[in-house]
Amino acid sequence: MKKHTAGIHHITAIVGHPQENIDFYAGILGLRLVKQTINFDDPGTYHLYFGNEGGKPGSIITFFPWADAYKGRIGDGQVGVTTYVVPTGAMEFWRNRLSQFDIEYIEAERFGEAYLQFDDPHGLHLEIVEREEGELNPWTFGGVSKEVAIKGFGGAILYSARPQETAATLVDVMGLETVGTEGDYTRFKATADIGNIIDVKMTTGVRGTMGVGTVHHIAWRAKDAADHQEWQEYAMNHGQHVTEIKDRNYFDAIYFRESGEILFEIATDPPGFAHDESYETMGKQLMLPEQYEHLRDRLEMSLIPIEVKSLD
């Protein structure tokens, strides 16, 4: 039986100074910092998670911030653009907000939709689109009200080293539906109401290099642990070289690099971000997995101090 992911679970990127990262995604874009933790494979580095009020799958962007690290290059083998979705009628607010903080943007159109395209402080390519689908995000921060707040991901643009093969993986492995082709892009759709639209650039360009300002991986949704195990076997049976299941505390994860050289993850929706701290206090303090708790004093001294503050 063919499997279908509901859509994007999260997107993870590499950025520079963590306070600059927080100021942009929380202070300007109005997202909630739902989790402060560490990179489980590099405990001297933060792993910061931002999303809607509940930190729901399809809204989570996560970051490995390395201050003064080398700059990457966005290109083939990466997520090229991360798309955010806002309520219908909110675009004028976002034009004004980006201008208020001196963020340059351009206006573009793709598949009949209007986009605001801009970069974050570390060079990640972002865009905003209006859509009816998806529930409002009740999280309010700074000058961003729930009527205009980012609901979560609209989707992403994938830059592939082998676009036809990436397109085949999206359909044949991940179970997305082909919507159509326009210019250089082919559009695919998953079943969720956010994080569901993937555009693949069907022409190749420069090869991407990992570093600050690039996306590390894109993660797709699995319903639960049983579904996740099915995904592991299913992807392997479709020719993917899939890792063992890894416990990431807030979800379980498997990884494979598809033929276009983009790193794919499949992550479970549960347990989510409120299982080790309350819903109300998510993101307010450093949370460590059990294996690193004995290093808390040392880590809290070595990690760069951060705070969420209103910039309005």
TrEMBL record:
This is Ring-cleaving dioxygenase. It comes from the Bacteria. Residues 74-121 form the Cyclic nucleotide-binding domain. Keywords: Dioxygenase, Oxidoreductase. Residues 7-131, 152-269 form the VOC domain. Pfam families: Glyoxalase. The keyword Oxidoreductase applies. The keyword Oxidoreductase applies. Coiled coil: none annotated. GO terms for molecular function: dioxygenase activity. It comes from Ureibacillus aquaedulcis.
